[in-house]
Each structure stands twice: as structure tokens, then as C-alpha cells.
Amino acid sequence: MHQKAGEEKQEPIVLTQLQDHIGIVTMNNSGKLNTLSSELVQGILEAFDSFEEAKARVVILRAVPGVKVWSAGHNMKEMPLGGQDPVTWNESFQKLLHRVRHLPMPIIGLIEGTVWGGACDLCMTCDMLVGAPSATFAITPVKLGISYNTAGVSHFLGVLPTHIVKEMLFTAEPISAKVAYKFGLLNKLVEADKLEETAMQMAALIASRAPLAVHVLRREIQTLTNGQALSPDDFEVIQELRREAYRSEDFKEGISSFFERRDPVFTGK
To answer: N or C: which end of the chain has fewer CB within 10 A?
Structure first.
């Protein structure tokens, strides 16, 4: 498509850079709060593919410097309604989480600004996080009446203490960068002007190590920290409870209140 005179050139919503075996993926859709739309997710996935093909040894996932919101999470306009499961295995965001967990190289999240909903789950699947004091983390399905999936819950339990996970999920309130660092979610907590330097130093150190050994260790750790297997009976019970939740009046109310920018009124029906 040719650019018309007077039109500003639109930047891609995902920027990529590869240097010294380090791949950098920058979410560049701040105008829409880096909402994890299918378009943004596809751009990140394509970046991962190119880095794997180029045999990158580490990946850094970040937003542009100075953002107030690192990512607002799921694109609610793409959320399925009408009694459908809102968090399915083949949904684009779930494909992103799966890809992150199965890349051969470690992923470092560089976190500046607030992290909401599904983006918080994305941070949990990264291998390491470097954050600024402005970083906060909130997982918000109970504000919307959404029944989060079992795989997603297991990501949180693999990183944080159980009682902290319960507090985050049951209240939907954010935890601060200080709390995230205290409980090991953040590997490094540094001022915003030191974020990039710190993440690059960490990435360079990893990139200098034997890549095959790092790959094996990452795979071992991912396998050993996978969520506990559910019995068929437990799985069916949880799935039925989830179906009740996403077919409920509360789910409709949660979605409506989000788009109407008001507090939801839940009835438990």
C-alpha cells in the first residue's frame, strides 16, 4: 500500500533487534496499552521464530521506554461470549504462552509500568524479570467474572508462594514491584534508567555460556516445574465449574461493566 501525501508512516506494533546473540522484542502499541491482541501476539510469535532461526541465545521482551502500562492484558474486544470458554488452548494468547514455555532460549522480561490480566500470566512464563519501581502486577479475572484456566493458574503457582497467588487471584489487586521482588517474581529491581543496562548485562552473561547446556537446563526446569497432574475426575469437576462460570450472568455483567467503564455488580448467578 502506498503512503498518501501528508500521512504519517505508521510504525509496526512489534519491533525487533538482534545483536550479539540477543534478540530484543519490543511491544510498540502503547496507544492501545500494548493490549495482547491477535495482531500483537502474531508479531511477537514471528519475532520468536526469526530469533530461533538465527540461533539467538537469549530473548528480551519489553515495551518502549517510559510507558505507564507495560501491557493491559487480553484484548477484551476479542473475548468470546455466548457461553464459550474465554480461555481456550487454541486462542492466540494461549499460543503465545505455550511458545514462550517451549522456546530453546531463555526469555528475560524487562518490566516498566503496570502489568494487567493475561500480561501478568505472560510475565510468569518468562524465565527472569527485571523491573523498575513503577512495575505492578495484577491478575484480574474475578473483576470480569472470568474462570481462569488451570494451566494459567499453574504458571503463578510455579513462581510465587501459594498464599500470594490466592491474594492476587481472589482480590484482583496489584502487587508492587517491591513485593514482587521480595517474593522472587522480579530477579532485579532497579531504577528505570538502569533497566535496559541491567537486562542487557544479564542477557550477555547468559549468551556467553554454552547454549546447548542452557537449553537443556531450561527444558529440565520447565518440565520439573510443570503443574501437578490432575486426575480425570478432578479435571472434569474443574471444567464443569468453569463452564458454569463463563455461562453465568456474572460473566455477562463483568464484560458489560468493563466496556461501560463502571463497577460490576455481581449476584453469584
So the answer is: N
What is d(CA 142, CA 157) in angstroms, rounded to the nearest whole number?
17
CB atoms within 10 A of CB 243: 14
pLDDT at position 81: 63
Which one of the listed residues 21, 73, 74, 145 is annotated catalytic? Answer: 74
Residue 69: CATH number of its domain: 3.90.226.10
Considering 23, 43, 145, 148, which one is annotated as catalytic? 148
Please write down the long-range contacts of 235-240, taking CB distance under 8 Å and 24 or more positions apart: 235/150, 238/150
Q: Which among 23, 117, 118, 131 is annotated as catalytic?
A: 118
Active-site residue, 246 included: no
In tens, the pLDDT along 10-53 reads 789 999 999 999 999 999 999 999 999 999 999 999 999 999 99
Rounded to whole angstroms, how far apart are CA atoms 120 and 140? 9
Q: Is residue 105 part of a domain?
A: yes
- Residue partners of 220: CB distance under 8 A and separation at least 6: none
Residue 203 lies in a domain: no
The reply to whether 176 falls in a domain is yes
Q: Which range of residues forms the domain containing residue 177?
A: 14-191+214-224
Q: How many CB atoms within 10 Å of residue 179?
A: 17
